[in-house]
Amino acid sequence: MGQTILAFTLIDFTDQRLAFAARILADLGALVVRVEGKGHPQVGPGYVLRNMNKHVMRLNLEREEGREVFLRLIKRAHALIDGAGSFACAISKEPPTELNPSLVHVSLKADGKGGLPDDYVVSASAGQMAAMGEGVFRSLPPGQNYYVLCLYGAIAVLLGLEKRDREGKGLYLELSLEECAISVIEDVLVRYRSGRAGAERGVDTSNNGLICTVDCKDGPFQIALPYGLETMMELLAADGIIGEPMEEGKGHGVIARAIKQWAASRTRNELFEMGQSMRLPFAPILSPFEVRKNVHLRSRRFIRQVKTEWAKHSIPSMPYRFSPSGRLKFRPPTPITDRLCKELLGLSDREFVALKDGGVL
User: 228: closest CA among 281, 179, 274?
Assistant: First the structure.
């Protein structure tokens, strides 16, 4: 049996970049209704991942009857998540909180004016790319900033519901994609102001330590030395790659290049075991395919097989467990049932059949 942590009705009216916010709450037991236009979306692994545990309601929003059904749903819901002003553009200019005074409305936006720029544009404008240094760089994984926005969006819904319960009225919350992107680079802005930021991409010199990526004989590897370089300098000197140790905190670029030369003749496993024996945080950089073989993830059944009417997919579950015996529900997105649809909308059998026969539902 799946555990239910939350108990409220949430309407998800976002595009696929932002659908993960409602998925987090659906995993915890919220009744999430994802509203989509008529027709079948491209149901690939990404769609399934972001919409697990949701009930999908497909409405003909080009027709007045379809928009009226949506408004009826809003009036009976506890919370709404939309993206970039999508509700105002597609449904109604009247704010949802005026239609339902007890509603918690969370809008995920790029800025105060609406719109969602490309993820890489935000990475550049929020300082993430500059924080990685100068020169040739590995691009950030696509969509990471959207996931951060979704995490904050899920938190905003919970905070909004708590505030509503205390004050007895609904509210509107707005989140900025750019501000969320800035929030994940921690103290980078502070270090830039104090002149302590790293100068080379792939080399981080914060806290007088050194973290760099290298290429071993069999793949990429991370060398992390967050608390001094003495041991690493001894290893480099033993191989004749570098001479006299440098003053602590100086010459990180030279040391990083020496480490890359030193690692190039070794395997990832060799370096990993060496780091473990010396209690140094060395680690191979694994591909997503290699991650699936991780013993810890397999023991917790973190990546599971999900079968839909179209295909079978390997989908990550959520990274929390509430008790040794309890499991959160884990089912693919499914079309909303007739019974649940009538219950949520307050429709009689006759009204429901008329809407369905008319192509609205």
Answer: 281
pTM: 0.79
Q: Set out the domains of the chain in order of their start, with CATH numbers.
A: 2-185+297-357 (3.40.50.10540), 201-285 (3.30.1540.10)
Residues 182 and 126: their CA atoms lie apart, in Å, by 5
pLDDT in tens, 20-58: 999 999 998 899 999 998 876 667 888 999 999 999 999
- Measured between alpha carbons, how far is 134 from 191 in angstroms, rounded to an integer? 16
Give Cα separations from 155 to 20, 22, 150, 181 (angstroms): 12, 10, 9, 16
- Six-digit token string for 351: 């009204």
Q: The tokens 């936006």 sit on which residue? A: 109
Paired residues of 300 in beta bridges: none
The predicted model gives 187-214 an average pLDDT of 58
**How many angstroms separate the most distant Cα atoms in the chain?**
87
What are phi and psi for residue 15, nearest 5 degrees? -85, 180
Residue of 27, 23, 55, 30 lying closest to 329 (CA atoms): 27
Helix axes 64-75, 338-345, angle to 10 degrees: 70
Mention every residue, 6+ apart, whose C-beta is less than 8 A from residue 110: 84, 116, 117, 122, 176, 177, 178
State both tokens at 39: 């027709």
Question: Residue 113: CB partners within 8 Å, gap ≥ 6?
Answer: none
Most confident listed range (97-111, 186-200, 202-216): 97-111
CB atoms within 10 A of CB 224: 16
Among candidates 305, 59, 27, 249, which has minimal Cα distance to 151? 27
Residue bearing tokens 């007739």: 338
- Enclosing H/E stretch for 151: helix 144-167
